[in-house]
Specification:
Oligomer: single chain
Distance between the termini: 15 Å
Number of domains: 1
CATH superfamily: Hypothetical protein
Radius of gyration: 11 Å
CATH architecture: 2-Layer Sandwich
């Protein structure tokens, strides 16, 4: 999954198992990763994940 690859580039570790969804961490921040889908995740879900991960959109787009 490309999402996991890019989060690792931004310093996140994981994913780790946790309940219904895996999660990734950076310092004290914990971000829930959606279950793998056959298609790409929606734009709104991606924006929500970026907000939770405190990743500026510009930084994400630069990857």
């Amino acid at each position: 999954m490309k999402l996991i690859h890019y989060l690792r580039e931004l310093g996140f570790a994981g994913p780790y198992p946790g309940g219904n969804h895996e999660f990734m961490t950076r310092a004290r921040l914990r971000v829930i990763i959606p279950n793998p889908h056959q298609s790409a995740i929606s734009r709104s879900l991606l924006l929500q994940l970026l907000r939770e991960a405190t990743i500026p959109r510009e930084e994400w787009e630069a990857l």
